[in-house]
From TrEMBL:
It comes from Solibacillus palustris. Residues 146-345 form the DUF4097 domain. This is DUF4097 family beta strand repeat-containing protein. Residues 3-33 form the YvlB/LiaX N-terminal domain. Residues 30-54 are annotated as: Disordered.
Length: 402
């Protein structure tokens, strides 16, 4: 038998037979030596080979036996996967990973938020010397005004509906004293608000001047409304404009009972709310804060790095909703009267489609990734393309309450 083993190994070395065939032949030789089974057919050798040597021919492999064979790796992990204690440890381990990643992202964005909040609460009178407070009112007929642009460094902007036909800009401010009090106030207010043709423009670049601005706007359709702040919040109510842009680096943005064709709301630190609004296209972005949207909207794109994102559209003409969050959950609510083509993703949370009349055509749950793709066909209805994504939170889709 030793000579036969040598012949088999020599044939493998010469490339006459494969390693798999050699294993089968060696197993047969070992089995023959260790037991005394009933006589079996002798191993058949081919008549000739490349080197004119007799070659062993492997018998057909029993597939059922091969399927029962496993490698050492499969044996070890197969037992582990069926071990309840092992599974519990794995679940606890994954839970710790999710918790740590979520806390890390929250802490990082929290540090940014805390720093910006300190800037927001900074009293500008210290250490910049003596302060002076002032109040000024500007008024313009609304009939020939089409555009309004406010651009200030530090303060607050409130937009309310006027009770007459005048656009009234009420400014309450404080700044550092330079010269006499009269000279300081005159220097700031002389060119603070201007009107050119059909546009009202307000600008203050002095970062040490704090301005609280309330602008009362009569109800009519405007072309453009723009409000920009470096530090402070923006609030808009009862405005009707083709284009609305509101941006602040540190502060909340709130828009209520407002109508637009296109709106962009952006802040680096603060919540963004758009309630009871109506528009064609709404874009919202915040680095640290919650996003809440509720209105008759055809297209919504909302993204927050650290904060929950809730988007609700009641429009039967809605055609796009996209909501994303890095650290926070995502909730999307759509009307039941639209056709759907959607996809939602979550790395550490759940992907939950709570719609009973959609078709789930792809559902995956892998390591650090859950995703669901779904469709809904509805004859004569507008197709809404929906995307929801979160890194650490749950993503869910529901119908709006009828």
């Amino acid at each position: 038998m030793q000579e036969q083993r040598k012949r088999i190994l020599q044939l493998v070395e010469n490339g006459t037979i494969t390693a798999e065939e050699a294993i089968v032949l060696l197993e047969k030789l070992s089995g023959k030596n260790e037991s005394t089974p009933p006589p079996v057919q002798p191993v058949v050798l081919p008549t000739e080979s490349k080197e004119n040597e007799p070659v062993f021919k492997a018998e057909p492999v029993d597939e059922a036996k091969e399927q029962r064979k496993t490698t050492g790796f499969e044996d070890i992990f197969g037992k582990s996967f069926n071990d309840k204690e092992f599974n519990k440890k794995m679940d606890d381990f994954m839970g710790d990973i999710k918790k740590d990643l979520s806390q890390l992202s929250t802490r990082m964005t929290g540090l940014v938020g805390a720093a910006l909040s300190k800037l927001k609460d900074l009293d500008i009178e210290t250490p910049f010397g003596e302060k002076v407070e002032f109040s000024k009112t500007y008024a313009y007929p609304a009939l020939d005004v089409r555009s309004i642009e406010l651009d200030i460094a530090n303060g607050k902007i409130d937009v309310v509906q006027a009770t007459d036909e005048l656009i009234t800009v009420q400014v309450n401010g404080k700044t550092t004293l330079k010269g006499t009090e009269e000279e300081t106030i005159a220097h700031i207010t002389e060119t603070l608000v201007t009107k050119t043709d059909d546009k009202i423009y307000m600008k203050s670049e002095n970062k040490f001047t704090q301005l609280k601005v309330q602008i009362a706007i009569p109800k009519k359709h405007y072309d453009v409304f723009i409000a920009r702040l470096m530090n402070g919040g923006i609030s808009v109510e009862n405005l009707d404009a083709k284009l609305i842009k509101a941006r602040t680096y540190n502060g909340a943005i709130r828009v209520n009972h407002t109508q637009f064709d296109h709106a962009e709301l952006q802040t680096s630190n603060g919540a963004v709310e758009a309630r009871t609004v109506k528009g064609t296209d709404l874009e919202i972005e915040t680095a640290n804060g919650r996003i809440y949207v509720d209105g008759d909207l055809k297209e919504v794109d909302a993204e927050s790095m650290n904060g929950h994102v809730v988007v609700t559209t009641s429009s039967a003409e809605a055609h796009k909703v996209k909501a994303r969050a890095l650290a926070g959950s995502v909730e999307i609510y759509v009307p039941k009267t639209v056709a759907l083509e959607g996809q939602i993703f979550s790395n550490l949370g759940k992907a939950d489609v709570g719609l009973n009349d959609v078709k789930l055509y792809e559902e995956e749950e892998q390591f650090l990734l859950k995703s669901v793709r779904f469709t809904k066909e509805l004859e004569g209805a507008k197709l809404l393309k929906l995307t929801g994504e979160s890194r650490t939170g749950t993503v869910l889709v529901r119908y709006t309450l009828q």
